[in-house]
Every structure is written in C-alpha cells, then in structure tokens.
Amino acid sequence: MPxxxxxxxxxxxxxxxxxxxxxxxxxxxxxxxxxxLVGLPTLNNRDTVQRIVNAIIVGLVKYYPRERSVLIxxxxxxxxxxxxxxxxASIPDFRAVLAANPLRTMHVVxxxxxxxxGHNEALRMLFAAADLLxxxxxxxxxxxLESVTPEWLDALVRPVLKDGHDLVAPVxxxxxxxxxxxxxxxxxxxxxxxxxxxxxxxxxxxxxxxxLASYFLGDESRREDFPGLGAYAWMTTAAMAGGxxxxxxxxxxxxxxxxxxxxxxxxxxxxxxxxxxRCMELHQSYWISRQGCEEVPTFGFQPxxxxxxxxxxxxxxxxxxxxxxDQLGSILEKILSSETxxxxxxxxxxxxxxxxxxxxLWAKTVFEFASSYHHSAINRDHLLQALTPLYRGxxxxxxxxxxxxxxxxxxxxxxxxxxxxxxxKPYLVERWNRET
Amino acid sequence: MNELIVRNLRGALTAVYQIVAQALPxxxxxxxxxxxxxxxxxxxxxxxxxLLLLARFxxxxxxxxxxxxxxxxxxxxxxxxxxxxxxxxxxxxxxxVGVNALGVVALQREISDFISLLPQFVVAxxxxxxGFLAAxxxxxxxxxxxxxxxxxxxxxxxxxxxFLILLLAITMALERIGLGRGVVLVAFALSFGAIMMGLxxxxxxxxxxxxxxxxxxxxxxxxxxxxxxxxGSHL
Lengths: 436, 235
Description:
The complex is a heterodimer of chains A (436) and B (235). With 436 residues, chain A is α/β, with parallel strands linked by helices. Chain A is built from 19 helices and 10 strands. In chain A, the strands form 2 sheets. Chain A has an 8-stranded mixed β-sheet, sandwiched between helices. Chain A is globular. Chain A starts with 13 loop residues before the first helix and ends with a helix. With 235 residues, chain B is mostly helical. Chain B has 3 domains: 1-103; 120-178; 180-228. In chain B, α6 packs antiparallel against α7 (181-206) and α7 crosses α8. The longest helix of chain B is centred in the N-terminal third of the chain and has 53 residues, at 2-54. Chains A and B meet through α7, α11, α13 and α17 of A and α5 and α9 of B.
C-alpha cells in the first residue's frame, strides 16, 4: 500500500518552515503520515537516553503495533555522544522486538536545535513535525528519566488516541514533601485561576493530540520565550484556556538523574513561577471570568504507598526566610500589600517552634506576587527572586506542621490549601485588575 | 586755567554721556530679553508639564524604577524634572543672548567658553543619572542574590555594589567636564585600590575562617551537597 505523503508546506505558515532545517524536513518527508509521534529532546543525556529510547520503542511495539509511529530526537548539540546513543538504542532493539511483533512502521528522526535556547525551540520543532506528519497523538519524554517504563507511553498516549482527550498531564507517585513548589504554588494557583484540578501542571512527560499540536504551533503566545521548563506551564495553561479536553494519567514514581538535571530553587521559581505569571497575563481574558473548578478525568492505576519523606533542612529554610524578610523589606513593600507584608513580618518574628505560615496568608502572598508581576511593580526578575525566601518560609512551616503526618493527612492538608486558593480567587482578580 | 578745567570736565561728561547713551539701550535690551525669556520659558514649562501629565509620562518610568530612583535622590517626578530643565534651558539661552547684546568682548568670550562646556555638562549629568539608575538596579540584584545564596551580609554586599557604581559614574562625569581631571582619576584609582586592598586584608586576616568556609563550600563539601539535595525536590 503506498504511503501517504505528509502535508508539507502549504498548511504551515512560512515563518514555521524557516526554522526547520532542510535535512529535518527531508527526513519528515521520508516518514510520511504517522499516528503517534514521540518527542525526546536531549542535551548531553547519554547516560539515560538509551534506556528511555528502549522503553519508548518497547511501549510502541507492545501497545501500538498497528499504528504508524515516529520517534523524533531534537538534540541541542550534545558533546557526550547522546545522538549516537539514541541511534545505537533504536536500531538493534527495534529489530529484536519487531521480530515478535508485527509493527507497521517505526521511524527515528534526529534533528538539531540551539541548545542554549532550551526547550522552546525543540518543542516548536516537535509541534511543527506533528502538524506536518498529521500525528494523531504526540508524547513528550524528558531525557533524564531513570524510572521510565514502556507502560508510561501507553498511559500517556491512550487517553488521546482512544478517548479523544487533547492534553494528558502526568501524575507521579511522589515521596512525602517531594515537589513542594508544585503542590504549594503551581497546582493550587492554576486550579484557582484556570479552574482545572491538574496535579502536575508542569510535568515533563505529557501527551497531546495532533489538533492541540497545531493549536500550539499557531498560537501567538507560543512565540513568548519561556525559559527552560516554563514552556511546560505554557502548554498546560494554553490547552486549558483554549478549551481543549484535559485529563491526567498515573505514571508511577518519577526518578530523574537529579545530580545534573535538578534546578536549584531560585531558577525553578524564576523559570516556572515566572512562566506561570506570564501565562496568566496571556490568558487573563479566559481565567478572570472563569467560575468554579472542575476535576479532570484521571486514567491508570494509582498505587497507595506511603513512601519515606524527602529530606529537607527545615531549619535552614526557616533561617533563610527570616533573613529574607528582614533584608528585603524595601523590595517586598513594593510587591505586597501593607496588610500582607505586616502579617509576613509578624510571623517571621516567631520562634522556630511556633513558626507557622498559614494557608490564607500564603495564598494571598502568591496572588499579590502574581498581580505585582502583572503590574510590573519592580523588575520582574527581581520580583521572582524576592519570592524565594517567602517560599522557603512556607516550606519550613508546611514540613514542620506535617512532620508526623501520613501521606493521606498531607494530601488532605494540600487539598485545604488548594481550596483556600479557590476561596481567595476574587482577591486575586481584584488585585489583578487594580489600577496602579 | 579755569577754562581748561571746564573743558576737560565737559569732555569727560560728554564721554560718560556717550558711553551711557551707547550702553543704556543695550542694557535695556538685555533686561527686556531676560524678562521676555523668563515669560517664554515659564509658558513653555507650564504647557509642557500639562502635556506630560496628560500623556501619563510618569507612568512610563514607574515600572523601570526611574521614579523611585528620582525620589530616593530627592528629585521631583520625571515630568516635573523635564519641565524644569526645559524652563532653565530656555531661560539661560535668553540670558546668554541678552548678555551677548551688551557687546562686552570679555563677557562674550566667557559666554562662548560656557556654551562650549554646556554639552559636556549635559553629558556629565546624564552619566550621573544613568549611573544612579544602574546603581539602584544592580544593588537590588546583589541584595536578592546575596539573600538567596544565604550570604552572611547581604546589605553590605548591596551597599558596596551601589557605592562602586556611583563612584565610577561620578568619576566619569567629573572627568567629562574636565574638572580636576588628573586629581579625580588619581583619587578614584587610589580609593578603589584602597578598598580592594582593605577587603583583601580584612578577608585574608580578619575573616580567614569565613574565607575557609566559603572556599570549602565552593569546592563542594558536604554542606553544599546537602543544600543541593534539598533544592532538588521542589518540582
């Protein structure tokens, strides 16, 4: 049966074509139309990438042997032989597994992107490729994973391919006190503002439909230069604001090669907190009028395990919070309202064993930072840096209050925090719309 | 004899009369030019101030920290400052034209020197202004970075950055207008060198334990690793 040629050129704006190299376009032309596109952007990930490619190929062969698929590996100029590792992993394993499974089509396409620009350019290439190849489902994997299994691919792709969802966010099985920035700020803020209960709004393993890829490609806000992982916050919020069907899937524990890939706290807040605040500006016409909050469908199996908590030096967090509030008063007074600043200053005077950063105060603090970001109260990078000490205080308080709590109790407390964010949404809207 | 005295006096009086007759119109012209200049400058100032307020000119600078920087320096808002500067530029121009109308050669030379210095003076003012803005921006960045890095004295670091940038800007400005060019340069080099040497001595002798701690952290000892471990789990 002749292979259908991809829809090159005429369906893609000229500007999009210019950033795709001739070699990449000719590789895509050779591939033809596909059902599943898997994207694996890499940058010096030789140690882990082979295992991930294997898991992806086994997942494709095991769960989608009849679907035409392509693995695209945009590489940011790796110097450690990552590309060779991808090549080495793909061909022999692919043939070995293929012998037992009637896989229809499987391609591996490699491309180059400017590594310094981070994920943005790699994602643009993947969106364009998905659009050109007419992919029905696309899945993204981060290249530093150590815990990936073939089942992850199925968990991410199935809701798109079989159930017609547009965006599948991951749900990881986390240790207690792991991912506190997500749980204390990103998840509840998106939940309150955008009205979707997505647990991991910046998860790096996601799936999306072909039509959502086309939307991402054409959306003006894509042209924003979101640094690093900020692009993932944009993808999630853009799908929500665009009215696409969002769901989530249980993946299991996420273990990454953290020594190299973990962001330090300042960078994480700058990249992802900043991206989220910027997304709120881009989507303000959507979320300001949005009422209520809806649960999204969750697929897969959720194991109930109470894993050991991660180790965080609570005392150091507390000390850095106190120092921050003491030293940054002149900066915080431009960002926070006088009532909130006074309340924060008040709790910073408490002794460590009596210290508590209450939910409502924390929610107001985050809302006021978001609003001040919107109003450019001070330089935006400085504003995000000023959030870090306050977040440390919140973390210290949260760990202290839940030191003896089990996983369920911690989850219940996080639900209460999210509800507090929702309750205070009118306050966010009022601060956001306030004339300065 | 008497006739000679009277003739000389008459001559002197005639000369004075001629000088006054020649100078008076010029003085009057100068006074008129200065007064008219003041009125014109005042009208321009008022109109400009209104226009800038209507155009919400100050708001353009609020987010950039300029308004704050001006208020810290006890200076008026950007629109007020521009109005006043324009007033003075217009009025001083009229005054110079008026003084020139007197026709005094020595004064004309001084005015010519002053006018030739004016562009340099404006450039020097701009250097100080932008130096002040840069000092504010970078001192705040240093303060935030020091707080987030858990440095022992964030304010000291921030103040030091501000002081250095202002010192540099003022030195550049003074050098620009040629005021004690050599003295300023030598003073800057001496004070900068003295600060650096003082810091080196203080850090090397007085703060050797702190230095050791910082170096140990920098070289990746256990404490640093713990911090890294903590930070790795927030996302």
